[in-house]
Amino acid sequence: MERRQAGGAASGSLPLTATFLPHSAAILLLLRRRPMQRLPLWIGFLEGPVFILITKTLRFSLLLHLPWIVEGGAALRGSPWVPSLEVAPSYRGAHGYGQDGAIWYRRCASTLSFYFCKKLLPSESFHRRISPVSMNCSRIQSVFLNVHKGQHEVGAVKGHDFVETWENDFVKRTSENYSGAGTTKRKELHGMTTLRALSGTWASQANDVILNTYEIKFICNVDSGNYSPFVLLTEARLDDDVANAEIELHLHLNKMVRSSVSPCGQIELNASQVAKSKLFHEFFFNGLFGKLFSHTKTPREFLLEDEKQFPWSSSYMYMLLPMESPVPTSTGIMKINWKEIDACISVVEFLRNIYSINCHRSSLTCSMSSYATKCEGTNIIHMANEAVYTQYIKGMVVLAVHTGRIYTVLDIMNNMCADSPFDDPGKRSKFNSFSHYYHQKYNIVLQHPGQPLLLVKQSHYPYNLLVPSTKYKDGYFGSSEKSNILVHIPPELLVHLNVSSDTLRSSYLLPSVMHRLESMMLACQLQQETCCIYSGHSISSSLILEAITTSRCSDNFSMERLELLGDSVLKYIVSCLLFLKYPMKSEGQLSEYRSWIVSNSTLHKLGTHRYLQGYIQDCPFDPRRWVAPGQISLRPLPCTCGVDTSEVPLEKEYWSEEASTVVGKACDKGHRWICSKTIADCVEALIGAYYVGGGLRAALSLLRWLGMDVSPEPVMIEEAKMNSSIWLHHLRGNEIDWLESKLDYRFSNKGLLLEAITHPSHQGVGNKCCYQRLEFLGDSVLGLLITWYLFQTHVDLDPGELSDLRSALISNENFAQATVRHNFEKHLRHSSEGLSKKLREYRKDVSEFQGTGDSMTSFAMPKAPKALGDLLESIAGAVLIDTDLNLDRVWEVFKPLLSPMVTPDKLELPPLHELAKLCNRMGYPLYTQVTYRGEQVVAELSIQLEEDLLVRHGCNLQRKTAKDQAALQLLKDLETRGISHAQYLSQRRQQDDNFCSASSVKICVPPKDMQIVRTNLQNVPECLLSLEPSPGSFLEESCQLNDLVKEISTSKLNEPDVPVFSLKKEKGGPRNALFELCAISKWPMPKFESTEQKFRTPIVLDGVTGFNSYTSSITLHIPNSGAINLVGEPRTDKKSSRDAVAFAMLVELQKQGRCIIKEPRLTYKV
């Protein structure tokens, strides 16, 4: 044997070496065992002679090269496949060996170590591993790589190429560093794509223009006033999907307005009309959603004075003008309401005159004195620009000359005048009267203080009307009726706007309408970039919009459903091509390459290459930041990114892994942070959208546009059939005919079916013919077909529930039950006694459950042999190849086999999954601790309720099953306390009592003296009590578990250190600190409640000016100490008010000695 040095010697250990055998694939790794360290023990079964490496407790290792090996009294023959290999009794159950060559894992460290070995060697190289391996993974990888290269050179390992030979086949790998790309941890700074549909230059030119017109009309479902139509004018012609869009706007619980867009041809405007339209736009939208006066100067400056230029960007240029009639004229020209536009322009001229006259005065006089002499009488109201009879006042649209805000008059307050006491709800007023207030606040001298005040409603506050607002982000359900801001104003401070209330009512809807239209324009622009057209029609822009919208937008749709579908489509397409293009590659090699192709890192690279990040909608619509062309933003967000262009370079300096990085919120230049994984998810969602809109052909076209050419050639299918036909001479009798009759499908190539039912252990055909490659293909086929079936059947199902339903249907357990239900396992060709035993036991268990009528769930049923699910998948792959990749035909065969399929109302989630969902919704912290007791896994799950700590234990050979046992018991405990998901109550059935017989419960309520409470030994799982490790055994040395059940306590048990927090100054710092404290202390999460109060005049709270005051209260339950209820100081926004009360709670907890707050001091302000 030739020995090669592969690594340096560690201190006090043997050199790390590898043994290279020219005619075998044996690998030796020697490493000295440290004190109290788990022993590595490897058994490798390779082609050629059998070599076993056993590391003992001494400072040497044994290499056994024997054709016959005796272990634990069982004779083992070294052969290429050892399906019936048994493990020594002392190690039985520590690690499993799948009868089909599958490897089962136990410890994290050994799994990581073995991962490298499995990546670098053929999947056939190691069939069994016993006990953990404690070695440096990088050294292991280096050794195995060097050895494998040497074996490859001499032909010891055949048919296995390195991954590097695959890389340039479909996706070009660049030299760029994509470490962390496609993960949730990494955030990236990206820009936003400019809308070409709203670009133009006409506004900056004093010329006649021809613009495209689109009518926007509104229809309300209740009779509560009319809505006047508006017309949208753009230079570019809008896509048909946008030009004929319908949008639902939700005003409150029972009131909804349907907005519809329709094209109305083109209109020509002369230079004068363009100038008037622009001035109207600037005045009207600044009066509604922006500002008309500068508040930084005294006296105030009117921003629409002569020669004042408002922002009209060439990349964002359109106009929204009121219409005179909802129907276009016979000539196709829209009847723009020039009367209302002229009325607004006359008000602009009036305001210019007032502020130009009073610009050098110390006080502002608004009322025109000529009205005092011309109009006398008790039924006359003197406005700022005219005198109006009282019968025409109600419903009038007015503008306040001192604030520039637009209001609607509700009533005349005959019992109040300017000399009446000034009312300021919620505050002690420092003004004697309204006259005193306006003189002190605005330096205005009223000319008619005896006139009755007008009660007006503020109409400029925008809302997001695209989604029903009955459910807020914090989960609170309640009325979404928009509260009105009502104020009293002297008439002489109001200018009459000759604009109908219907027009004003419609303008309130425009921000939401335009936001949705702009999103659809973005989707259409992406659609045009992909250039994918099929059979004379293109992919719907609504599908593309759904694919680029994340759940963070809180919209009625998101990419999650399409992402789930796209993931299955991509996996299927790649699997087909790999299967067909590489007929000599093993299933393990194909899976490895497929994993790289469909990885988030690869998809992220493809997406950023096509600048998909610029199209992603990743933030909820904030109507307060919406601006129309010519409007000044009231909430500017200056760019601090240091990037001058709209696009951000893909460089490391624009990456972040800080948890505090705010995702989604864009600055004024359009730069925003996006989670790296979101880009990969968007790629999958787009694949799903194109599959929905145009089938596989559309999806393949999109993949080519992205840079992934994965279209199979027809000749590859014929070659695959020919390769399988060579096994036909192994047919015996009519075994294939029986199976075909069960499938109700006749194969044109019987060799495919023979290959699909041949287990790797079968010696009759040889190890080259087995179902593993077809299983690789069938797994993706059934995954796509089932996902597509669910996508079409459950159109309104939540993405999370859809994913749960899909997981249940494509699980090995479901496939195994279908296999047994149709007796397919009787046709499985194998040579494994161990597998035969498992199949008999599983069929017996299934029969017993069917006989008792109990629910056959994955929790009550024993775990199905993996070979059963693999068999069904391999048959699906065979049918797919035999039908020339006809998915519809495959589904015709397999839909009856998989029926009846589970439905959402009958879906039983895994107990741990259901428990996690319940705790997340209820705010109860869930804690998990896993320990090992010999071959058994002991899982401890605990939930901290408001007063009680519920603890359950599960015990099983498998970690997941042990956790499910404990979780199932906790779910029952919570249900007895009336805590459960209503949707799960009817779904969860009574589980078999024997399933959870090895579980224990203890409700721990420690006394005030905080003594340790132990679980009663009579409730300890029997499997734990039966474990008696012998002195000096491997179990005793490695585990060192003195007690069977962990000590359970709450609060200050074992005197833990008091948590120390350093509050962050940004918004959310106190809340995050409080949440962290609750998690550390195992307390239930606090509950917040907020109340809002609105004011007619600006208020200042904690240095912040606003018109709203939010006061939040908090309730925190501390186990065994009761609840703490606090009310925080008012703030101008809800989040800041919750920060204020959270900080007050932290201060209170610090006083009680439960935490320590470091700098900044207790004068922290939010």
Automatic annotation (TrEMBL):
<dbReference type="Pfam" id="PF00636">
    <property type="entry name" value="Ribonuclease_3"/>
</dbReference>
<feature type="domain" description="PAZ">
    <location>
        <begin position="379"/>
        <end position="498"/>
    </location>
</feature>
<keyword id="KW-1133">Transmembrane helix</keyword>
<dbReference type="GO" id="GO:0004525">
    <property type="term" value="F:ribonuclease III activity"/>
</dbReference>
<keyword id="KW-0479">Metal-binding</keyword>
<dbReference type="GO" id="GO:0010267">
    <property type="term" value="P:ta-siRNA processing"/>
</dbReference>
<keyword id="KW-0347">Helicase</keyword>
<keyword id="KW-0943">RNA-mediated gene silencing</keyword>
<keyword id="KW-0464">Manganese</keyword>
<keyword id="KW-0539">Nucleus</keyword>
<feature type="domain" description="RNase III">
    <location>
        <begin position="736"/>
        <end position="884"/>
    </location>
</feature>
<keyword id="KW-0472">Membrane</keyword>
<dbReference type="GO" id="GO:0005524">
    <property type="term" value="F:ATP binding"/>
</dbReference>
<keyword id="KW-0255">Endonuclease</keyword>
<dbReference type="InterPro" id="IPR036389">
    <property type="entry name" value="RNase_III_sf"/>
</dbReference>
<keyword id="KW-0547">Nucleotide-binding</keyword>
<dbReference type="GO" id="GO:0004386">
    <property type="term" value="F:helicase activity"/>
</dbReference>
<dbReference type="GO" id="GO:0046872">
    <property type="term" value="F:metal ion binding"/>
</dbReference>
<dbReference type="GO" id="GO:0003723">
    <property type="term" value="F:RNA binding"/>
</dbReference>
<dbReference type="InterPro" id="IPR000999">
    <property type="entry name" value="RNase_III_dom"/>
</dbReference>
<keyword id="KW-0067">ATP-binding</keyword>
<keyword id="KW-0540">Nuclease</keyword>
<keyword id="KW-0677">Repeat</keyword>
<keyword id="KW-0694">RNA-binding</keyword>
<dbReference type="GO" id="GO:0005634">
    <property type="term" value="C:nucleus"/>
</dbReference>
<keyword id="KW-0378">Hydrolase</keyword>
<dbReference type="GO" id="GO:0005737">
    <property type="term" value="C:cytoplasm"/>
</dbReference>
<feature type="transmembrane region" description="Helical">
    <location>
        <begin position="12"/>
        <end position="31"/>
    </location>
</feature>
<keyword id="KW-0812">Transmembrane</keyword>
<dbReference type="InterPro" id="IPR003100">
    <property type="entry name" value="PAZ_dom"/>
</dbReference>
<dbReference type="InterPro" id="IPR036085">
    <property type="entry name" value="PAZ_dom_sf"/>
</dbReference>
<protein>
    <submittedName>
        <fullName>Endoribonuclease Dicer homolog 3b-like isoform X2</fullName>
    </submittedName>
</protein>
<feature type="domain" description="RNase III">
    <location>
        <begin position="543"/>
        <end position="695"/>
    </location>
</feature>
<dbReference type="Pfam" id="PF02170">
    <property type="entry name" value="PAZ"/>
</dbReference>
<keyword id="KW-0460">Magnesium</keyword>
